[in-house]
Amino acid sequence: MEQRKLLLTLFIIAAAAALGTAGTHWLASGENTQQDTVEDTRFLMDTTVDVRVMGHDAQRALEKAYAEMDRVESVFSRHRDDSDIGRINEHSGQWVEVSREAMELLQKGIDFGDLTDGSFDVTIGALVSLWDVGSGERRIPSHEEIEAAKELVDYRTVALDWEANKVRIPEGAVLDLGGIAKGYAVDRGSAVLREEGIEHGLINAGGDVSVIGTREGPDQPWRVGIQDPAQTNQVLGVAELIDTTIVTSGDYQRYFEKDGTRFHHIIDPETGWPADQVTSVTVVAPTAVVGDALSTALFVKGKAESQELLETFDDVNAIIVDKDGAIWVSPDLEDRFRLL
Ligand code: AMP
Ligand code: MG
Predict the structure, then answer these.
(1) Is there an atom of ligand 1 within 6 Å of 128 CB?
(2) Is the CB–ligand 1 distance for residue 265 below 6 Å?
(3) Domains located in the chain, CATH noted
(4) Pocket of ligand 1, candidates 296, 298, 301, 306: which has the most ligand atoms within 8 Å of its Cβ, to mutate?
(5) Under 8 Å CB-to-CB from 137, ≥6 apart: which residues?
(6) What's the gap between Cα 18 and its chain centre?
(7) Ligand 1 and 127: CB distance under 6 A
(8) Ligand 1 center to 265 CA (angstroms)
(9) 192 — phi, psi (to 5°)?
(10) Which residues are CB-neighbours of 233 under 8 A, at least 6 positions away?
(11) pLDDT-based confidence at 5, cuts 50/70/90?
(12) Contact at 8 Å (CB) between 327 and 320?
């Protein structure tokens, strides 16, 4: 499984490098200061995170961005007992004091629940644990187990006390911000790079990508390859992007296979089973939080309902690959996306 994630990440880097000229050093226009280009890949948030930065003091900016994403993980990981999310889960049924930052992202997750009629659900944890697709066990839960876990999944049951900075979930419920926290981390990492004066950069956390400015000169957009869900060592197209984010949810990112069927990590809260409408959804949105939550939600909704929902946004576009490999691209994205 780890290998798969690594492949995905490396592939996006490879696509970026092959499709553009991977700049190393250049002179900023009008200045005589040499700009550095630095890049690194580190393991964070259960995935590989690439950061590529150009500018003055690029290494320092890169280190600060990694430190910030590491900090975000320590707040939101449900696998750490001492994280805010870990503590809320540990003490389900009771009020738990958490950071303002945790309250705010949780509230955003809940808002996405409302916006998507529950396709995105921050309390999906009980079902995610039941399927446990990363464990290697490859066990399909029984009908009774799924029904019991579904009882614990409802984002509307999460209570927030903004005066006391406290959160309470029903006893036995499990918060899982895995569908949004990586996007948040990438947004925070990008914000730190910008604060450090970086004007050209890219962060890719296992498919959650934020690009800062152009690739280098004024007219060179970043070129990000969209992985082909059917052949994950190939890209199906390339998006040309400046100052935006692009996030993909795919059935090939984490899964197990049994008797020829793939059971993956995006669960439909209504059925309790892995969503089976499409194979990948890529969202281009102003922030990776929006892209992350919506790519997961649209994956659950499938093509027709996603198209309807997308019409309600001015600044969110998507590329949806359905089960038979048909690719649908938001009309507003057509001039920035090329099929290969
Ligand atoms: P992503 O890869 O961003 O689509 O997110 C998938 C991750 O989000 C899973 O690994 C779970 O942690 C969580 N998740 C799965 N299904 C849902 C859902 N319907 N709503 C919210 N989060 C989900
Ligand atoms: Mg997501």
Answers:
(1) yes
(2) yes
(3) 2-58+200-339 (3.10.520.10)
(4) 296
(5) 256
(6) 24
(7) no
(8) 7
(9) -65, -45
(10) 7, 11
(11) very low
(12) yes
The token pair that represents 302 in the structure block: 């499938």
Measured in Å, residue 250 CA sits from the centre of ligand 2 at: 10
Number of alpha carbons in the 13 Å side-chain half-sphere of residue 87: 15
Which value, in Å, is the radius of gyration of the alpha carbons in the chain? 20
User: Among the residues of the chain, which ranges form H helices?
Assistant: 2-19, 58-76, 84-90, 100-115, 125-131, 143-150, 181-195, 288-301, 303-310
Residues in the chain: 340
Which of the ligands is closest to the CA of residue 112?
Answer: 1
pTM: predicted TM-score of the whole model, two decimal places: 0.91
68 SS3 class: helix
Ligand 1 and 180: CB distance under 6 A = no
pLDDT digits (tens, 9 = 90+) for 112-152: 999 999 999 999 999 999 999 988 899 999 999 999 999 99
pLDDT tens, residue by residue, 70-92: 999 999 999 999 999 999 999 99
**Three-state secondary-structure class, residue 76:** helix
Q: For ligand 1, atom 3, which residue shows the shortest CA distance?
A: 179
- Read out DSSP for 231-275? STTSEEEEEEESSEEEEEEETTSSEEEETTEEEES-B-TTTSSB-
**Could you tell me the two tokens for 74?**
């320590």
Dihedral of CA 33/29/239/236: which sign?
A: negative
